[in-house]
Every structure is written in structure tokens, then in C-alpha cells.
């Protein structure tokens, strides 16, 4: 547990008497009560800190341990909050009696306000099998829980060259009273009517850096969910759309098929192959077979980082059977047929 300056929070000296501690707590509880501080986003957090400080300094034994540099999370269990509840209730009743009644759209009862504060300082016990001791876990929300992850599909060309795209982000402003659970002490939260918060949409223009890969994450600061003064980040999970020519592999390599004619396969040739940036020439050796694959180094996807290497391009040959032959072409193929090749000689035989 992080050690806090409880004396500083209550604005008292380390030699303050128990009466001075209680007086300081009552004064600050009235000052920072959420209903009195409508629109002050930090009032609830200050209110929680004040209550936590009094829980420690208002107890002689805990105060002695604290002065000796020791803080025990078990101090904040439900068993130990009765005293602070009594003081808080008296302060609450006194602060808002008669003409000092708070005027707000959302009036919360004493129990709602106090129990929400206790939930933030308190620990919740996890359910365990019979005979096993329950562990304790702090109930405050991890800031990372406010992060939002959203999928974003882009083309291979956009991933290669970079792009700017406008997207719609759906975010949630988490209720400060219930912390997004929709409940306060097992009762429906009156502030959000049990919804846990309010969802809103926003359009953002984002920059896609060149070299992103399938599964890459782009972080956009302060565009996630909101709880009080804390706002999470937005993470865009990149998904590459299926390409009509290139097959995309996870490591940044690309694969494609390039058609060649029978004469190019038999006699050899030099052909042009498209890449993401330009066209390159490769030599087809004579008597090349269907499916023969050539590797063109560095012509796959760009590297995501300067320390990484670009992917490679793998080009496979695909023999195209000629169609709509002229009479002369047919005669030439018939002439070639006079020189048979035993291509099926070594096929499987049941004998």
C-alpha cells in the first residue's frame, strides 16, 4: 500500500490531539462534500482521502503504527469503519440541516455517499472454497481498466504507405458514485440508474504510420473511458483487409502467383512482377515447372520499426493454358505432340 501523508491531508500537526483530529475531519468533510462541490471533479477524491486519513489518525493504535512508518491494508476492513461512520453521519446531518440543505439535481443519501467512500478505501474479500482463507483486494479501479480497444481495418497499401483516417470512437464516462458497477452497496445507483455511466460517440482523425502489421496496436492518449479526472487511452487494433493479389503473412512476407505461358516455361524468359512500390524483373529459367517459387528479398511489407527487416516477396509460377487458338497455333502444337514425353511414367501402380 502506498504511504500517504494523513497529517497533511487533514491539515494538522503531528502532535495534534484526538479532539483536534476529529475537528479537522469534520471541518474538511463539510467543505469537500460532493453535494456542496457541484462541478468540482476532485471533491469526491478529496473526500475519500479525508475519510481514509481519519480512519487511521482517529484510532490511537493505528496512529501509533503510522507514526512508526507502518501502514496495514487490513485497517480498512468493514469491521474497522464503525467509528468513522458515526463521525461522518453526525457531520453530514449537521452540515446539511435546515436551510443548509444541499440543492442539487442528484441528492444522495448519507448511506450512499458514505458507503461509496468506504468502497474506495475498503477491501473486498474474494470468494474462496470452504476452508481456504479469503484474500483481500483493494476495490479501487485500475487506471488501465479505462483503456478502450477498437478494431480498425485498413488496406495493405495504407499499411505500406501510411494514411490518415477518420473513425468513430464509442467511449463511456464512468459514474463517479458507483465506479461503473451500477450499484452502491448492492443497491441500484441513483446517479446513473444502474447503467454504470454514459456512452458517447466521437469522430477522430488518426494517423496510420507506414509499416504497421496485422495485429499492430496504435495508442491514442486520453481518448478512452473516463472516471472522474482519469481518462484511459484508446488502442486501435490493426487488421489488414484481404488483398486481391497478395497473400499477407504474419511476419510481413507477401506471396503471389504470376501467370506464364508454355513457351516461357519451356524456353525461359524475363518477366515483370508487381510489388507494393514498383515492378521488378525476374528471370524464368528454361524448363520451369508449375508452382516454382522465386524469393525477392525485401519486397514484402515495410518494417514496423527501424530495427526490423522488411518482409520478402515470394512469387510462384502459374502455367496458363492458351485458349482460342488459331489454326496455325493448333498445327504447331500438333507438331510438338509428335515428340511425346512420358510425364506419367512414374505414377502409382496397384500391381
TrEMBL record:
SMART domains: DnaJ. It is found in: Cytoplasm. It comes from the Bacteria. Residues 5-70 form the J domain. Pfam families: DnaJ, DnaJ_C. GO terms for molecular function: ATP binding; unfolded protein binding. InterPro entries: DnaJ (IPR012724), DnaJ_C (IPR002939), DnaJ_domain (IPR001623), DnaJ_domain_CS (IPR018253), HSP40/DnaJ_pept-bd (IPR008971), J_dom_sf (IPR036869). Its main location: cytoplasm. GO terms for cellular component: cytoplasm. Keywords: Chaperone, Cytoplasm, DNA replication, Repeat, Stress response. Residues 121-146 are annotated as: Disordered. Residues 122-146 have a biased composition (Basic and acidic residues). GO terms for biological process: DNA replication; protein refolding; response to heat. Belongs to the DnaJ family. Participates actively in the response to hyperosmotic and heat shock by preventing the aggregation of stress-denatured proteins and by disaggregating proteins, also in an autonomous, DnaK-independent fashion. Unfolded proteins bind initially to DnaJ; upon interaction with the DnaJ-bound protein, DnaK hydrolyzes its bound ATP, resulting in the formation of a stable complex. GrpE releases ADP from DnaK; ATP binding to DnaK triggers the release of the substrate protein, thus completing the reaction cycle. The J domain is necessary and sufficient to stimulate DnaK ATPase activity. Zinc center 1 plays an important role in the autonomous, DnaK-independent chaperone activity of DnaJ. Zinc center 2 is essential for interaction with DnaK and for DnaJ activity. Homodimer. This is Chaperone protein DnaJ. The lineage of its organism: Bacteria, Candidatus Blackallbacteria.
Amino acid at each position: 500500500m502506498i504511504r500517504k501523508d494523513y497529517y497533511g491531508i487533514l491539515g494538522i500537526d503531528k502532535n495534534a490531539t484526538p479532539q483536534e483530529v476529529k475537528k479537522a475531519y469534520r471541518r474538511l468533510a463539510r467543505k469537500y462534500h460532493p453535494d456542496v462541490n457541484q462541478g468540482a471533479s476532485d471533491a469526491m477524491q478529496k473526500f475519500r482521502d479525508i475519510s481514509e486519513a481519519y480512519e487511521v489518525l482517529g484510532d490511537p493504535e493505528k496512529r501509533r503504527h503510522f507514526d512508526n512508518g507502518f501502514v496495514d491494508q487490513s485497517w480498512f476492513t468493514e469491521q474497522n469503519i464503525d467509528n468513522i461512520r458515526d463521525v461522518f453521519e453526525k457531520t453530514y446531518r449537521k452540515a446539511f440541516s435546515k436551510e443548509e440543505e444541499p440543492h442539487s439535481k442528484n441528492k444522495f443519501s448519507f448511506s450512499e455517499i458514505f458507503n461509496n467512500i468506504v468502497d474506495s478505501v475498503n477491501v473486498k474479500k474474494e470468494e474462496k472454497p470452504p476452508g481456504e482463507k479469503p484474500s483481500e483486494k483493494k476495490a479501487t479501479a485500475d487506471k488501465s481498466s479505462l483503456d478502450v480497444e477498437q478494431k480498425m481495418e485498413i488496406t495493405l497499401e495504407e499499411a505500406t504507405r501510411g494514411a490518415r483516417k477518420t473513425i468513430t470512437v464509442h467511449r463511456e464516462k464512468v459514474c463517479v458514485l458507483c465506479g461503473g458497477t451500477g450499484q452502491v452497496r448492492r443497491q441500484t445507483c441513483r446517479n446513473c440508474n444502474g447503467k454504470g455511466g454514459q456512452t458517447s460517440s466521437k469522430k477522430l482523425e488518426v494517423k496510420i504510420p507506414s509499416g504497421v502489421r496485422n495485429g499492430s496496436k496504435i495508442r491514442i492518449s486520453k481518448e478512452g473511458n473516463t472516471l472522474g479526472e482519469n481518462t484511459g487511452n484508446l488502442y486501435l487494433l490493426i487488421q489488414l483487409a484481404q488483398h486481391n493479389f497478395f497473400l499477407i503473412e504474419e511476419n510481413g512476407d507477401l506471396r503471389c502467383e504470376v501467370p506464364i505461358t508454355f513457351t516461357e516455361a519451356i524456353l525461359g524468359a524475363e518477366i515483370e512482377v508487381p510489388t507494393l512500390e514498383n515492378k521488378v524483373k525476374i528471370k524464368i529459367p528454361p524448363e520451369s515447372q508449375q508452382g516454382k517459387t522465386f524469393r525477392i528479398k525485401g519486397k514484402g511489407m515495410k518494417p514496423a520499426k527501424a530495427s526490423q527487416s522488411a518482409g520478402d516477396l515470394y512469387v510462384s509460377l502459374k502455367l496458363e493454358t492458351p485458349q482460342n487458338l488459331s489454326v496455325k497455333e493448333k498445327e504447331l502444337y500438333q507438331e510438338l505432340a509428335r515428340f511425346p514425353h512420358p510425364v506419367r511414367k512414374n505414377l502409382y501402380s496397384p500391381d
